[in-house]
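Troubleshooting: if your tokenizer reports a length mismatch, compare against these two reference records.
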Amino acid sequence: MNGTTNNGTRGEPAIKVEALECGYEGKVVLQDVSFAVGRGEVFFIIGGSGCGKSTLLRHMVGLNQPTKGAVSFLGRSFTEAHAGERRAMLKTFGMLFQGGALWTSLTLRENVALPLVEYTTLTRREIEEIATLKLAQVGLGGFEDYYPAEISGGMKKRAGLARALALDPEIVFFDEPSAGLDPVTSRKLDELIMHVRETFGTTIVVVSHELASIFGIADRVIMLDRGAKGIIAEGRPRELAERSRDPRVTEFLSRGEK
């Protein structure tokens, strides 16, 4: 891993994961996981159900503590940082959870405003203006005062993305963004993800098993395997599908083909 971005420029990677071990209640789910994500790259974590994709993501962003290994963001250690440093680093990345994870009792504007309230000293008016702007950037202008129950599943994902972008993060994580969406809405969300990368230079990390998204927008992927408890393949998805000699990889990436 040479730390190059997807456009070939050298430099410190946006994310570096080294010998990470993840698990719950003494059970090891993943072990010795190492990879790097270049700045501005669209990077996918893929694999079948139960292989540890979301588990890896949760351990990377601090929702769970790794039992071994290290995670760095933008050249700074996240796993070794003290509480104050971690809080500052959290402002550099956003997260879109499955389903959007919106607060049902809050309007879309109020949902998007939450990170701004927590991490900035902006005035209420400034926060409302930024939240309105972020909703407009994801195509939800005019829906600021709607509640999550009043919009579609795809719109909820867009609102969740607006909240993830509220602090202008350098990295955005997506956990199964297409889950529950029809193919057309899923494709539009992929287009929006690419728009975010192209417009803001954001580094994108996506957990997914959806082949259309994997082949459609991923620069590179790592594939996890439940039995191996780690990475069994890394590279560009099309090249892995055509050249891998591992039947687990070719079977996963050729699903649906006749």
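Reference record two:
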Amino acid sequence: MKILVAMSGGIDSSVVAHMLKEQGHEVIGVRFTLWSDPLAPPMAQILPSKCCNAQTIARANQVAKDLDIPLHILDLEEEFKKNVVDPFLEGYRKGETPNPCVGCNRTLKFGKLLDFAEKLNCEKLASGHYARIKEEKKSNGTISYTLLEAMDASKDQSYYLYGLNQSQLSKVLFPLSGLEKSEVFALAKKYGVPFDEIHYQESQDLCFFPEKEPEEFLKRYITDSAPGDIKLEDETVVGQHKGLPFYTIGQRKGLGVGGLKIPLHVVRKEVDSNTVYVAPNGADLKKDLYASDLNWISWVPPKNEPQKLQARIHSIGERHNGVMNHDGKSLHFRFSKGLRGIATGQSIVLYRGEEIAGGGVITERMQD
């Protein structure tokens, strides 16, 4: 089989390339260049926690050389800026907390790369993502593809993949789907993938700015943000904020609110009045949310019929029980218990056991 492998230069994608070559496939590598913050401090650009740094580029080149496979470089800088970075900044300007990785997977990693695979007449696109795809032949002869959680729950990336559709899943391979991370490292040693086991760091956080947290990046691009009041829900002013974009729903540390003995959490941000609202621990827990921009993967739940499902509102952490109802355009989810940190702009991802049913972008939290 002729397979295009997305080679970021990380250990995972490097092992994937070796695995597929060893299995006898015709392997072609592709590495893409994305937009990175030109205004970032020069010293911060060398942080090893980010993808597409000098180390990962060198590793991708070395793996391609060792396997004697072609390695294409695809320039996606313009598309990345337009489809990922700009919506990220616009979301923060509107008081939201956007999740750029979902859109990147949908439009670029499994959008532009699939187009490139087709151009090269490749049958499949393989990546180092930790997730599983189940293929099932229906009675009418069609094939359905179901997205499942990875075997290694600690590395599962299914949350970021809920936006994929049947056409995309039919052309994608996740060769690491049944492996534990420790097994992947063992394979890397076996194949001679170059990495320093002691100092190796996997890419983490968002890739288009060098800092661990987005605050400094936001300061560089959202320059019209103004300080304002931090208030309790009864409108009592308890402090001053530095600017709405620099606060996230559920945040407790760094609020600069003094003189109160009880811990306070950010519960909402009001753009019109430039106000951050906080509430005591417990009072900030919410059960209900609405979401739009829905995507169902292999099972479309009936409209206006409540379904008991589990959901995640963050990429990591436990799944929570609740009841979902949708009308085709938006969904309502009510959790069985109150949660902290439900933020507009983030994604809610829905599960039926180990199956990722789909999800959407959170548009509203209902006040209890």
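Descriptive notes for reference record two:
- The mean pLDDT is 90.
- The chain has seven helices and 17 strands.
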